[in-house]
Design the sequence.
């Protein structure tokens, strides 16, 4: 209820004179108001935010005034949504969601999210937004950071804490081959005909040393090899990425292991990697 505006006439800087048609109240319901503009005219609509000599009352609420019962009309916040985008891009991609039992958990419950997908040496922006029961998102809270790591990583995105390997002690340079669907057809013409399909996949060999207490895997070498064996027996695809920014979804196969009897704390490991998919930011 807004009272008393009928004491004005002419415009908002005039001295109060006579009531305007004896109207002395305004009632608003079922709405959210960011501006109220009362004018001594009908059908004359001017640009939002401005006023003229017909203005009787103008009030700015900046989107904060809601008509009705807040406790009855507000939807409950049911989850927090985490988004990510490469700095400078327009659109965010949802990367995680945390369910909430009630609104108070936003202030009382701590949430931890580790993002294993970003490329190395790329600046990203992460944002968190509340989501209500109708699916409407609230205001974003964001932060920006550049990711940097070394070596090659093979990561199980379903359980990255338990199953991830870092190929940091590479014994050889990593040669990456590209397999493409390309066929040259011989014809009776001077030149052959080249046909291309959709296939365009990378393959490579990763080779590194497992060393006890090396700072990256501070445990026995056999446990490190056991982790690789478990990952291989999952018969699934993994995230494969490197410190120079390469990243794709790959299948790992054909592991080879070399043990050294003279040096019992070192194992030479080699696996083949074949690209089967990609990740978009």
Sequence:
């Amino acid at each position: 209820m807004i009272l008393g505006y009928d004491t004005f006439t002419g415009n908002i800087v005039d001295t109060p004179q006579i009531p305007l048609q004896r109207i002395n109240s305004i009632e608003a319901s079922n709405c959210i108001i960011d501006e109220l503009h009362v004018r001594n005219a009908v059908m004359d609509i001017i640009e939002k935010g401005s006023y003229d000599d017909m203005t009787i009352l103008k009030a700015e609420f900046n989107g904060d005034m809601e008509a009705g019962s807040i406790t009855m009309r507000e939807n409950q916040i049911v989850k927090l949504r985490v988004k990510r985008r490469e700095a400078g891009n327009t659109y965010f991609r949802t990367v995680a969601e945390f369910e909430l039992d009630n609104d108070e958990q936003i202030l009382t419950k701590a949430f931890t999210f580790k993002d294993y997908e970003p490329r190395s040496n790329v600046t990203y922006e992460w944002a968190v937004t509340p989501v209500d029961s109708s699916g409407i998102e609230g205001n974003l809270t964001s932060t920006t950071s550049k990711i940097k790591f070394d070596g090659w990583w093979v990561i199980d995105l379903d359980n990255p804490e338990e199953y991830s390997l870092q190929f940091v002690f590479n014994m050889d340079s990593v040669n990456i081959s590209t397999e493409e669907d390309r066929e040259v057809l011989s014809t009776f013409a001077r030149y052959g005909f080249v046909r291309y399909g959709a296939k365009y996949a990378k393959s490579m060999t990763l080779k590194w040393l497992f060393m006890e207490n090396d700072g990256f895997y501070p445990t026995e070498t056999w446990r490190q090899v056991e982790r690789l064996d478990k990952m291989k027996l999952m018969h699934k695809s993994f995230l494969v990425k490197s410190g120079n920014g390469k990243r794709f979804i790959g299948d790992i196969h054909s592991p080879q292991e070399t043990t050294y009897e003279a040096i019992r704390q070192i194992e030479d490991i080699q696996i083949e990697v074949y690209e089967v998919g990609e990740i978009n930011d």
